[in-house]
């Protein structure tokens, strides 16, 4: 396992456009024309391409500053590797994942130079014209197995995926039901597909923990199954295989009810990398898959234990792995 013998986290300041180190004792953070991009909006999916112009728009810095989203790294990542960032928790809309890994608002390319990252989302999002091209221009891709393997095994300086990375929100829609403010409940115990992906491609796993992601909306929990809301949730689960959370947040003009996310800080901490041994078929090595999965959870626990008193002062309990 690669480790960096330093204390504190490295962050990026959009104001100074430089890196800085956050120690435990430090104060918490406060709040060219691109014709090919425009052309890609009118062309088929295969012609749309990643646009650094779109990823670097000042709009995304305003977006991040609304919440005060910050990105920190625990250790630098060598540019000669390939990486799978595992983002936790899902929250409701994964605002922290979008700001940190789909834009340059938080300085991803400064913190992890020479690494080209793609935030992954549902394949169904890429069946919608225009919206599909917008996502592709942000460097986003489908979370399907074929898409993941293509990114990690092609492109880069050597044509084999070196210097490329993907970000997967591991808990998925199921974890959104656990997005209760001031809590950290992760759906991870049985999620091992990304571990096997890392082993098949020889990619390094990088755990990411977003403190505050669950605080942006208020989720209605313990719905009565006999109520209309409870019946709708059960219907979603029966038809689609998953259900959706009932939630509310702030409204306009300081109203207490609406759908605008709460203006609360989100601190995204990228953990230390976990190397894997490349195998063609990890299904034959379940013991090794379990070992890597345990190391991954151990690193997430380290992040939580080390930074919970800084970024989760209002927590109502410790992190729980479901």
How helix-rich are the residues, as a percent range? 25-40%
In whole angstroms, the N-to-C terminal distance is 25 Å
What's the shape?
A: globular
User: What order do the strands of the largest sheet run in, or round the barrel if closed?
Assistant: 2-1-3-12-9-4-7-5-6
How many whole angstroms does the radius of gyration measure?
Answer: 20 Å
Mean pLDDT: 86
Report the major sheet: 9 strands, mixed
Structural class: alpha/beta
Oligomer: single chain
Query: How many E strands?
Result: 13
Q: How many structurally independent domains?
A: 2
H/E order of the elements?
EEHHHEEHHEHEHEHEHEEHEEHE
What percentage of amino acids are in beta strands?
15-25%
Number of helices: 11
Low-pLDDT runs: 1-6
Write up this protein.
Strand 5, helix 6 and strand 6 (141-142) form a beta-alpha-beta unit. The radius of gyration is 20 Å and the shape is globular. A 9-stranded mixed beta sheet has the order 2-1-3-12-9-4-7-5-6, with helices on both faces. Strands 8-13 form a two-stranded parallel ribbon. The chain is built from 11 helices and 13 strands. The protein is α/β, with parallel strands linked by helices and 322 residues long. It folds into 2 domains: 56-216 and 269-311, no CATH class; 218-260, no CATH class. The protein has helices spanning 35-40, 52-55, 58-67, 95-101, 108-111, 131-137, 145-153, 172-176, 193-201, 228-240, 286-311, and strands at residues 9-13, 18-22, 69-73, 83-88, 116-121, 141-142, 164-169, 185-186, 204-211, 218-220, 246-248, 266-270, 320-321. The model is unreliable at 1-6 (pLDDT under 50). It is 31% helix and 18% strand.
């Amino acid at each position: 396992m690669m480790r960096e013998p330093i204390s504190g986290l490295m962050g990026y300041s959009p104001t100074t456009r430089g890196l800085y180190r956050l120690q435990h004792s430090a104060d918490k953070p406060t709040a060219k024309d691109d014709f090919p991009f425009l052309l890609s909006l009118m062309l088929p999916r295969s012609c749309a391409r990643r646009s650094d112009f779109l990823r670097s728009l000042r709009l995304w810095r305003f977006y991040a500053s609304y919440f005060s989203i910050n990105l920190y790294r625990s250790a630098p990542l060598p540019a000669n590797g390939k990486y799978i960032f595992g983002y936790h928790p899902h929250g409701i809309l994964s605002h922290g994942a979008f700001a940190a890994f789909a834009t340059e608002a938080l300085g991803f390319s400064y913190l992890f130079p020479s690494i080209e990252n793609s935030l992954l989302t549902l394949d169904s999002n890429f069946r919608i014209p225009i919206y599909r091209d917008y996502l592709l221009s942000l460097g986003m891709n489908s979370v399907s197995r074929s898409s993941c393997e293509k990114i990690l095994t092609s492109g880069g300086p050597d044509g084999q995926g070196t210097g490329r990375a993907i970000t997967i929100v591991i808990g998925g829609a199921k974890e959104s039901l656990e997005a209760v403010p001031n809590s950290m409940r992760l759906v991870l115990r049985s999620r091992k597909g990304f571990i096997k992906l890392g082993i098949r491609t020889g990619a390094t796993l990088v755990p990411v923990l977003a403190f505050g992601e669950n605080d942006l909306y208020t989720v209605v929990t313990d719905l009565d199954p006999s109520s209309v809301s409870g019946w709708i949730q059960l219907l979603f689960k029966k038809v689609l295989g998953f259900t959706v959370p009932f939630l509310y947040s702030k409204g306009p003009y300081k109203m207490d009810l609406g759908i605008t996310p709460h203006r609360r800080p989100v601190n995204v901490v990228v953990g230390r990398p976990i190397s894997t041994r490349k195998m063609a078929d990890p299904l034959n090595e379940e013991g090794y898959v379990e070992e890597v999965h345990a190391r991954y959870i151990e690193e997430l626990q380290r992040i939580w234990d080390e930074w919970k008193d800084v970024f989760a002062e209002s927590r109502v309990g410790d992190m729980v792995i479901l």
